[in-house]
Write a structure and sequence with these properties.
It comes from Caballeronia glathei. With 342 residues, the protein is α+β, with helices and mostly antiparallel strands. Helices cover 38% and strands 22% of the residues. The protein has 13 helices and 12 strands. The strands form 3 sheets. Strands 3-7-8-12-11-10-9 form a 7-stranded mixed sheet. It has a 3-stranded antiparallel sheet with strand order 4-6-5. The chain is globular, with a radius of gyration of 21 Å. The structure holds guanosine-5'-monophosphate and zinc ion. Guanosine-5'-monophosphate binds next to strand 8, strand 11, strand 12 and helix 11.
Length: 342
């Protein structure tokens, strides 16, 4: 671990068991076999059973309690962004390969006939490789999929005018889309992300991030999971991407809490702690009360990944999970969180 962050903030992380390769590449098959996840035929898109959703929702309740002192404004959006906001966000500079745009039929009767003819040809291919010719009739809508839960909020906050004195904190939750089909269950194409987002002065947002590295670590320790805090290695696109990734690491803009889940030889980022500097503040023209450009930071909880990590380490039968974890998720969650925060 290499960090310029206050060492006290990382105390909880250092007290945790050392990370070792406890990843299990058979996890997805076992969860499907047990009916906890449901195959759709498409890598990275799974149905969730009641057992999976129960754990995920209880985790979400625990995250809410973990952040209860943040005075965060709850904001929920459907998993789509205005295309124009997405264009302005610069996401396509970094991750053009992950973005998902939304298209729809917007033609006339003749176009409809062309659509149906192309569709007949597609379906005639049966189980073979299908043509995508019918999609020629699909045109861009004004929407794209949300790539990260915090994206919809910046333009909305900007429209409100300057931040209040002391900045502002938001609690967001969204299904997110990333086009990266994979047989690794911890790399889904659609997954839920829970975030707390802080906007304010550089000092405010750095303090927030340190607090959440500490809190996130304490939380995952309570969940009985082995983890490490590492500098992140985001998959920035293209040849220039390597330079951006190096700069992100040099400036320590992003840390991740990693847990061995299903990827052989590599633990999976289940929480991330991001410092955006004034990137979003400048893009969206968000100012602090004193007129300075707002800095921002966010802590993101990968809900599916953390749920998968629990099934990986504690087994597929939740009734057999360790007492402490059961007490946290199915018992007096508030008391367990209060104890951890003390
Ligand atoms: P980030 O924006 O840092 O890439 O993602 C934030 C969090 O979302 C990650 O820490 C992780 O927990 C979750 N996440 C990112 N990508 C994926 C993915 O492909 N599948 C799933 N299930 N979760 C992801
Ligand atoms: Zn975020």
């Amino acid at each position: 671990m290499n960090t310029r962050i206050d060492p006290a903030a990382l105390e909880a992380a250092e007290a945790a068991p050392p990370s070792h390769d406890a990843s299990d590449p058979t996890l997805l098959a076992r969860m499907i076999e047990a009916g906890i996840l449901v195959e759709t035929g498409e890598d990275g898109i799974y149905g969730r059973s009641a057992a999976f959703e129960d754990v995920l929702e209880r985790l979400s309740v625990a995250v809410t309690l973990l952040g209860a002192d943040q005075n965060a404004e709850v904001l929920r959006f459907p998993p789509a962004l205005r295309r124009r906001d997405f264009e302005d966000s610069e996401y396509l500079k970094s991750f053009p390969d992950l973005a998902g745009t939304i298209h729809a039929f917007q033609g006339n009767d003749a176009d409809h006939r062309r659509l149906l003819a192309a569709l007949d040809a597609t379906i005639a291919a049966g189980d073979g490789e299908r043509s995508d010719e019918w999609m020629d009739q699909q045109k861009p809508t004004r929407l794209v999929f949300t790539p990260a839960a915090c994206y919809p909020i910046y333009p909305v906050i900007a429209r409100r005018g300057a931040l209040p004195e002391g900045g502002a904190t938001f609690d967001v939750f969204s299904y997110c889309f990333r086009h990266e089909p994979s047989v690794d269950p911890s790399r889904m194409q659609m997954f839920r992300m829970r975030e707390f987002v802080r906007l304010g002065s550089p000092g405010d947002v750095m303090t927030f991030r340190e607090k959440w590295i500490e809190r996130g670590s304490a939380f995952v320790k309570m969940l009985g999971l082995p983890f490490d805090i590492d500098l992140a290695n985001d998959p920035f696109f293209g040849r220039g991407g390597k330079i951006v990734a190096n700069s992100q690491r040099e400036q320590q803009l992003k840390f991740e809490l990693v847990i061995p889940v299903a990827t052989p030889g590599r633990p999976t980022a289940c929480l991330s702690f991001n410092y955006h500097m004034d990137h979003f503040g400048t893009l969206w023209k968000i100012d602090c009360a004193n007129g300075d450009v707002a800095h921002s930071a966010c802590v993101a909880f990968g809900m599916e990944r953390t749920t998968l990590a629990l099934f990986r380490h504690h087994g597929l039968d939740v009734r057999a999970w360790p007492d402490g974890v059961r007490a946290l998720l199915w018992g007096d969650t508030q008391a367990a969180i209060d104890a951890a925060l003390r």
